[in-house]
């Protein structure tokens, strides 16, 4: 019996995670905009306070749009799978079926997946949840019901980035109201529903900020060395990683070379046409290390 088949159950959990993301966004929107800062904007007689409320609401909506755009782009973008006829095009032979690897020109060392019965390009790994090989696989994420791989890793990083900024903003702008929570609760000066939404939004956003900080720092470290989460455990203490091209080039290998697109969950046509690494089949390596 193949126990890894039970991993496919994580897909069901993932759909609940999407609903959880939408719920957290909804609670935060009510607490920050509807309940806290929109009343300040429309009722305040002080120009400075109204300007602050307008700025907070604008930044909140901008980050929310970028967050949701990045999130759903990550969810609906195929991370990259091995082309159906890749093995025949690469001329894979019996040695590949035996589980070994061989050099195939510019594509470097090719492996063979016994589960998919197909050639594995460099940096490709099999996902037990998706039941397929994923190009430059980083990890399977239950929050997006998808794998993070060559073609959606940038979008995933932007989702982390904008979510961290959004939740940090929520924590900061809700903090004064959270401090007043206990006094308001004693005086019964606010409705129970308003107080409950405020506390829930603050606690949830604080928890997300602390957890996301760890993920952001980890992925920044991986990005700087052009390493995936899977490869981090496969390097075996190698001093020189063959895909480490320097911080600037490592960044471009994921985000592309067009600066205007770096903070957007999409790529320019030039990058998609000219950067083979974004397709997940061929990756440049360091010239001082034998492939």
In brief, what are we looking at here?
The chain has helices spanning 10-43, 47-76, 86-90, 94-97, 153-179, 181-187, 192-224, 229-232, 247-255, 269-274, and strands at residues 102-103, 109-113, 118-120, 125-127, 132-134, 139-141, 146-148. With 291 residues, it is mostly helical.
Instruction: State mean pLDDT (0 to 100 scale).
Output: 83
* Helix content estimate: 40-55%
Enumerate the spans where pLDDT stays under 50 for 5 or more consecutive residues: 1-6, 92-108
Sum up the overall morphology in one term: elongated
What integer value in Å does the Rg equal? 23 Å
Number of distinct beta strands:
7
Beta-sheet strand percentage? 5-15%
Cα-to-Cα separation, first versus last residue: 38 Å
Q: Main sheet?
A: 3 strands, antiparallel
* Largest sheet strand order: 1-2-3
Which structural class is indicated by helix and strand composition? mainly alpha
Number of helices: 10
Q: Spell out the helices and strands N to C.
A: HHHHEEEEEEEHHHHHH
Molecular structure report:
- The protein has 291 residues and is mainly α.
- 55% of the residues lie in helices and 8% in strands.
- It contains 10 helices and 7 strands.
- A 3-stranded antiparallel β-sheet has the order 1-2-3. A two-stranded antiparallel ribbon has the order 4-5. The protein has a two-stranded antiparallel ribbon with strand order 6-7.
- Helix 1 runs antiparallel to helix 2, helix 1 crosses helix 5 and helix 1 packs across helix 7.
- It is elongated and about 65 Å long.
- The two termini are 38 Å apart.
- It is found in: Endomembrane system.
- It comes from Arabidopsis arenosa.
- InterPro entries: Palmitoyltrfase_DHHC, PFA4/ZDH16/20/ERF2-like.
- Keywords: Acyltransferase, Membrane, Transferase, Transmembrane, Transmembrane helix.
